[in-house]
Amino acid sequence: MPAAFRPLWASVATPFDSILTQSPVHQRRQFLLEGRYPELDAQLQAIHQQFASGALSEGDYAGDLTAGLIGPDDPRMEPLLLAWISTCPQSYVARQVYAHFCHAMLYAYRGESTGNTITPFREVKMYEWGWKCFDAIQQALALPAAKPLMSYDLMIELLRVWNGSLELDEAPFPPLSAAEQAIYANPRPELTPEQLDPARWLELGLAAVPDSLILRDSYLYQLTPQWGGSEEAMRAFVAEQLPRLDSTRGAKLQALMLRKLAFHQEVFLEDEAGADRLKAEADTVFPQTAESDPIDARLRRFTDAMDVAGRDPEKNAAALSMIRDVEDREILAHNDAEALYYKGKALCTIGQVVESEPYLLAAVRMHWGNALGNILWLYCSESPLADPQRYRQWLDELVAMDSSEGYLALATSLYFGYNGIAQDIRASEQPAIEAAKRGAARLMANIAQHYFMDEDNCGIVLGTDPRLGVRWLHWCAAQMEYPFAQTQLGRHLIYAKDQSYAERFPHDPEAGVKWLQEAVDQGDISAHYWLARAYQDGYARIENQHEIIELYEAVLEYGDARQQSLAAFYAGKLAVEHKDFEAVSRYAGILKQLDDPDGWYLDAEVLWHASGDDPKAPQKQQAIRIMEEALQRGSGEAEERLQHYRSVVPQGGLLKSFKKLFGG
């Protein structure tokens, strides 16, 4: 790669460039992109010496050492960082920045997922970048450097998410490439328990920087419940460390512990009241506003509000108002790319898309990677800034960065023919696989559906192969725990026997019910309908028939119109079987409100069954007339049922009813 590497995210023009280009962070980034490694190294060495001499706090040092050099998460930057190391082989800061870059790439491939939603591809990439990070830290520590704080801190961080011994699934799907498989063929030394023990690295780090709060905070995070620790372990660690810290650092460590516990309560236990109590206790121990100047405090309140706001326009508007008293120049002077990103995101969320553009572009220019996805959708076809050419430019940039979001956007655009890109379902298949390998299961599950289609054009394009389709669905359902895939897999396992491809598809009702229950447990509404149907059709035993009605009622409350129609119809049929005619009438009324002809079908059934066994009962003739209306309106099952009615009712009675109806 040439030294003068100009990725799109580093070349974008913004209204704030006159300020941005004066930033030391921007200058250091330019040194890296242009191959001016000795100048870059001199600046970073000066920052390290300031920290080592006590002229720079560890918090400022931690931010300044890597600012602008490791984000966004772009693997194309690695050759530049390696060239810096090659040019300055005795540079501690060069190797440490590279270690941080490797760690950032590990997190990029890890994504937001945890547990078994880590795909085989992600495992490979985490393994690859984890080893690079581990090696780079070891090499940095082998060089003479005063107070190598960041090396020890990063090792503690690394060992939380990577243990150097991930096991590769022997038959992963989607398949790994030969190059990806080869990563595991690269022999690595066996790591000792001491090398994998975060407590050992904390001890070594504190020997080098005894009063470090950053090291203690990183280790404290290891002990949080979401990482397998406990509140008791966290409190015991803090109690052990307090005698070794001054009163200010001790209070701050206690507050950090309480805020971590509050986060766990709020996010993992969904206990907002408990979280609020812990936050209040943390503010009593060490108020957040005491940590920094008023501008930073206002920015932090804004980002905290955005974390809570989500996509609620009212909350986003409130969050936005919290930062409007901070001038853009103040944000830029603080080099706060995160604040620019959140400001742009908030504007975009409340519909001020045009106003959001300069903030998001500036955040990208300042190397805030999270803004890249928002930039992409600034120019999509549904945006007031719709621009197919710019959309494709940013899409290609994300794909070049090996971004899961880029592959997903490309596959989606090709699949549906969105954003100025011509529809090409076959071409969408490979980027969909790449997106799924990186954790995006939805599109993969959608495409899997086309392998069950005989007549549909998509089935012709991809080729009808139910065995491949079920394999895709099973991978998304099992590996990704994706409820849509679980629902579709369960449905096919139960009902594929009725399809033209039945001989090429496994019929396994027991497994199908299991997958539907998994999806129901995750709240998938479609799964509620199909599980109720499976019980109603006898594919699984259920002791309490009312549970079927509860499943249908959930669909009626939360489903879309089509789902509600299906649920009301089959719930009505079940109520007919149990002679609960009041319930049947209720479901008929729901169907009529939805303009569904099966409402008249159920009305006819109420009259037919309520009239008992007398074939000459007047209600039977009335039921025939209503069923005829259901047939005329388009009810799919009305014709067969009408034939049964007519076979039971005497023809003379039926003729009289026709004469009465038509005045004959």
Indicate the mean pLDDT: 84
Shape: elongated
Number of helices: 37
**Sheet/helix structural class:** mainly alpha
How much helix, percentage-wise, in residues?
55-70%
Largest sheet: none
Uncertain runs with pLDDT below 50, 5 residues or more?
455-461, 657-664
Q: Based on DSSP secondary structure assignment, what is the total number of beta strands?
A: 0
Polypeptide structure, described:
With 664 residues, the protein is an all-alpha fold. The chain is 67% helix and 0% strand. It has 37 helices and no strands. Helix 3 packs across helix 4. The longest helix has 22 residues. The termini are far apart. The C terminus is likely disordered.
For this entry, give a set of tags.
664 residues, disordered C terminus
Q: Secondary structure elements and their pairing?
A:
Layout (H helix, E strand, L loop, with lengths): L7 H4 L5 H4 L3 H10 L3 H16 L5 H9 L11 H10 L4 H19 L9 H22 L7 H13 L16 H8 L12 H11 L4 H10 L8 H11 L5 H21 L4 H14 L8 H16 L3 H9 L6 H6 L3 H13 L3 H13 L5 H8 L9 H13 L3 H13 L8 H13 L4 H9 L6 H6 L3 H13 L4 H13 L13 H13 L3 H12 L9 H13 L2 H17 L3 H13 L4 H13 L7 H16 L4 H11 L2 H12 L2
Helix pairs in contact: 3-4, 4-5, 6-7, 7-8, 7-9, 8-9, 8-10, 9-11, 9-12, 11-12, 12-14, 13-14, 14-15, 16-17, 16-19, 17-19, 19-20, 20-21, 21-22, 22-23, 23-24, 24-25, 25-27, 27-28, 28-29, 28-30, 29-30, 30-31, 30-32, 31-32, 32-33, 32-34, 33-34, 34-35, 35-36
